[in-house]
Design a protein that fits this description.
The protein is of the alpha/beta class and about 350 residues long. The chain folds into 2 domains: about 220 residues, Rossmann fold (3-Layer(aba) Sandwich); about 110 residues, Rossmann fold (3-Layer(aba) Sandwich). The chain has 11 helices and 8 strands. The strands form 2 sheets. A 4-stranded parallel beta sheet has the order 2-1-3-4, sandwiched between helices. A 4-stranded parallel beta sheet has the order 6-5-7-8, sandwiched between helices. Helix 8 links the parallel strand 5 and strand 6. Helix 1 packs antiparallel against helix 7. It starts with a helix and ends with a helix.
């Protein structure tokens, strides 16, 4: 969908919604991580805003739920989250505290690309095969498919039945903007079911947001051109979806997908990888101590860069997600293309 078409559709739907949309009470929505909060905020724009369960900067893999966060879940009429593979500590709370809420598990939305977890400190080149693409037509490189016309019929489940078994799959799905585009109509459908008076607004916002994300993909694809082919290592294995979407390959990760501290054998293996591939950059993250990355860089000539997969330093709201994706591209290009 082209941007101009998205704007026209949004304007028409808003006109059809009329003044009643602004008067309707939006549902109480709880979300898990800042990127999801941003996408839901984009769909709710003009009606309300979701409440984040996690504070900015917290790791989704091992966060301890605080009383104030539990209250947000308890008050929610709709919960939107990636799913238990990303936040296993949240699963029980969603099932108990939000037992009466509708639940949209984004990892179960049709059209979402799923990639397998990678094994070992060093990655095989072009290791983006998954076998779980749900017919979305996305290719394995950075040439975007043209199947952008995601419709609005993505249903959402209720309660604690999370559907598809994603065992062994990488849970960092939001780092592929095509996945985010697939989520927008599903988010709009869930919101429309909870709040029919604002249904036209939610669908219009989702359509406009999808057009914005398509334009974002094109900008990021161009920004990464000078960085492609330059070997680098990341702090933890969170970037597989971004790499697969934009055709840029990490050589390995210091830590595994859940960011658990690496053992001595993995540290030795990643050090060998850094030297073997002559890594240009080692990327740290704002959520974690960079000391180990700096030690691994000593004597190798590798530079230290920063990638933020959660938008810890960004302003929450509709603009966070595109700023996050563009910020990651800028961080890669700035370190690798020097």
């Amino acid at each position: 969908m082209k941007g101009s078409i998205g704007k026209t559709a949004a304007a028409a739907a808003l006109a059809a919604a009329g003044a009643g949309a602004g008067a309707a009470e939006p549902p109480r929505v709880a979300v898990d991580i800042p990127p999801v909060q941003s996408l839901v905020s984009r769909v709710m724009q003009g009606a309300g805003a979701p409440a984040a369960v996690m504070p900015p900067g917290a790791s989704p893999h091992d966060h301890a739920l605080r009383p104030s966060e539990a209250r947000r879940l308890d008050a929610a009429e709709l919960v939107i989250w990636i799913g238990p593979d990303l936040t296993p500590w949240l699963e029980g709370a969603v099932e108990t505290l939000a037992a009466d809420a509708a639940v949209l598990t984004l990892s179960d939305v049709p059209g979402v690309r799923h990639l397998a977890l990678r094994e070992g400190a060093a990655f095989e080149a072009h290791d983006h095969g998954d076998g779980h693409d749900h017919g979305d037509g996305h290719d394995d490189g950075h040439g975007h498919d043209d199947g952008h016309g995601h419709d609005d019929d993505h249903g959402h489940e209720t309660g604690g039945d999370h559907g598809h078994d994603h065992a062994g799959e990488d849970p960092h799905l939001w780092l592929d903007p095509a996945n985010a585009r697939a989520w927008l109509p599903a988010i709009a459908a869930a919101l429309a079911e909870a709040d029919p008076a604002n249904a036209a607004l939610y669908r219009a916002n989702a359509a406009a947001g999808a057009a914005e994300l398509e334009a974002l993909e094109a900008r990021v694809d161009a920004a990464l051109a000078p960085a492609r082919g330059k070997p680098f290592v990341v702090f933890h294995d969170a970037y597989h979806y971004f790499e697969a979407r934009f055709g840029i390959e990490a050589a390995g990760a210091i830590s595994v997908s859940d960011a658990a501290p690496p053992g001595a054998a993995r540290v030795a293996a990643i050090r060998d990888t850094i030297e073997r591939v002559d890594a240009v950059c080692i990327f740290t993250e704002p959520q974690f101590e960079p000391r180990l990355a700096r030690r691994l860089a000593e004597g190798t000539g590798a530079r230290i860069g920063v990638l933020d997969p959660l938008g810890a330093g960004l302003e929450p709201g509709p603009g966070l997600y595109p700023a996050l994706i563009e910020g990651m591209a800028a961080g890669l290009a700035d370190c690798l293309a020097r």
